[in-house]
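C-alpha cells incoming
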C-alpha cells in the first residue's frame, strides 16, 4: 500500500472496539474518527483508543474527515445505511456480518458498490483463516480426491435466531469457500420438538434480549442441505445445545479419497487435520487423523488480514475476500432454510426471487 489508510468507524459497541483494537496495532492504518448514536459508546471508544473526532451522524463524519475506508460495526439493523452512504461517496467499506437485515438491503449494498467502484467486504474473516486457505489449496491439489460434501459445524451456546443469522453466516461462508455458489437448499426448523409455526416468529431481541439485533427469527433447532455446482453437496446443523464449544466451529470437507477437518476458533496453528481415507470408520480408528502444520501460513489475525486485503483491492480494483456478493450468499443460505421450511422442507432454488425476509413474508401473508 502506498500510504497510511485513514479509517472511520461507525458503531462503537463491543465489535466496534474490537476493530479499533486491531487497527491500533496494524501498521499502515489509522482510526481517525468514530460514530455512534449512544454518547456512552462514543466516549468509551474515543477514550480507550485515543480517537479525537467523535460524531453521532455518519454522513457528517464522512464529509468532515473524508476517510479512505469505513468500518461498519453496528447492530445488523444498522448495516445498510452507513455502508451505502460511504459506497456512494466511493469509500470502500468493511461491514460486520451478517451483511444486512434482509436480502433487499443486501442487494442495495452490493449494487451501491458496483455502481461506485468502491469495494464492499463483509467481515467473514475466515476467508483468510490459515486453515481455510491451506485446506482450499489441498482440495485444489487433489489431496482428498474429488469433493463430495462440505459439512458446516456451529459453536452452539446461543439461542437459535442469533445462532442462525450471526454465527451461522460464518459457517455458511466457510462452506462457500469450498463448495462455491449454491444452486438450491432445503431446510427444516423445529421449536420444542415440533415444526416451527407462524406464532413462533419473533424479533431476535425478543428471543435473546442481551444478544445482537438480527431481525426476525424462529425456532431452536434446524437442519439444512445444499446443492453446489459440480455435484458437491452441503449440510449444516443448528442443534440448540445450551453449552458452547468453540472447538466444534468450522467445516468438514469430504472427498473421494480423504477428508479435511478445519476448526476456525482458538489456536490458528492447530486448525487443520487430514484423514487419508474417505470414511472415518470406528471411533477407535481416529488415530490416523493427521495434524497439518500451518507454519509460516499464520502471519496475523484474519481480521487484520481483512483490512490489508480490502485496502489492496481498493487500490488495484480486484474483489476483496469476503466480498459483498459472498457475504450476501452466506446470508441467503441461512434465510433459505426458513423459506424451505415454510414450504414443507422442499428444495428451493437459489438465489430466491423474493428478497424480503422469509419470516416477514410469512407474517404478512397471514
Amino acid at each position: 500500500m502506498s500510504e497510511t489508510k485513514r479509517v472511520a468507524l461507525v458503531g462503537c459497541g463491543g465489535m466496534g472496539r474490537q476493530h479499533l483494537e486491531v487497527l491500533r496495532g496494524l501498521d499502515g492504518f489509522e482510526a481517525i474518527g468514530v460514530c455512534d448514536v449512544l454518547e456512552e459508546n462514543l466516549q468509551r471508544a474515543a477514550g480507550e483508543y485515543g480517537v479525537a473526532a467523535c460524531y453521532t451522524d455518519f454522513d457528517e463524519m464522512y464529509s468532515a474527515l473524508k476517510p479512505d475506508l469505513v468500518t461498519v460495526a453496528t447492530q445488523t439493523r444498522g448495516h445498510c445505511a452507513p455502508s451505502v452512504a460511504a459506497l456512494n461517496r466511493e469509500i470502500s467499506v468493511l461491514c460486520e456480518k451478517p451483511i444486512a437485515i434482509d436480502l433487499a438491503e443486501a442487494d442495495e449494498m452490493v449494487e451501491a458498490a458496483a455502481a461506485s467502484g468502491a469495494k464492499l467486504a463483509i467481515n467473514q474473516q475466515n476467508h483468510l483463516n490459515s486453515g481455510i486457505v491451506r485446506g482450499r489449496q489441498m482440495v485444489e491439489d487433489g489431496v482428498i480426491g474429488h469433493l463430495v460434501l462440505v459439512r458446516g459445524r456451529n459453536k452452539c451456546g446461543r439461542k437459535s435466531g442469533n445462532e442462525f443469522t450471526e454465527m451461522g453466516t460464518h459457517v455458511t461462508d466457510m462452506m462457500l469457500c469450498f463448495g462455491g455458489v449454491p444452486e438450491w437448499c432445503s431446510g427444516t426448523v423445529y421449536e420444542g420438538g415440533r415444526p416451527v409455526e407462524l406464532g413462533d416468529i419473533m424479533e431476535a431481541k425478543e428471543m435473546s434480549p442481551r444478544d445482537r439485533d438480527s431481525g426476525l427469527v424462529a425456532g431452536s433447532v434446524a437442519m439444512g442441505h445444499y446443492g453446489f455446482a459440480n455435484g458437491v453437496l452441503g449440510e449444516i446443523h443448528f442443534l440448540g445445545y445450551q453449552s458452547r464449544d468453540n472447538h466444534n466451529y468450522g467445516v468438514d470437507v469430504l472427498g473421494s479419497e480423504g477428508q479435511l477437518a478445519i476448526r476456525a476458533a482458538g489456536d490458528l496453528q492447530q486448525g487443520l487435520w487430514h484423514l487419508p481415507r474417505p470414511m472415518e470408520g470406528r471411533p477407535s480408528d481416529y488415530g490416523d487423523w493427521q495434524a497439518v502444520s500451518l507454519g509460516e501460513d499464520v502471519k496475523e489475525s484474519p481480521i487484520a488480514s481483512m483490512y490489508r486485503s480490502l485496502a489492496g483491492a481498493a487500490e488495484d480494483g480486484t474483489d476483496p475476500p469476503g466480498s459483498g456478493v459472498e457475504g450476501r450468499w452466506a446470508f441467503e443460505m441461512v434465510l433459505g432454510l426458513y423459506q424451505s421450511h415454510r414450504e414443507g422442507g422442499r428444495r428451493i432454488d437459489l438465489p430466491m426471487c423474493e428478497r424480503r425476509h422469509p419470516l416477514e413474508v410469512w407474517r404478512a401473508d397471514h
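note: The CA atoms of residues 97 and 104 lie 15 Å apart.
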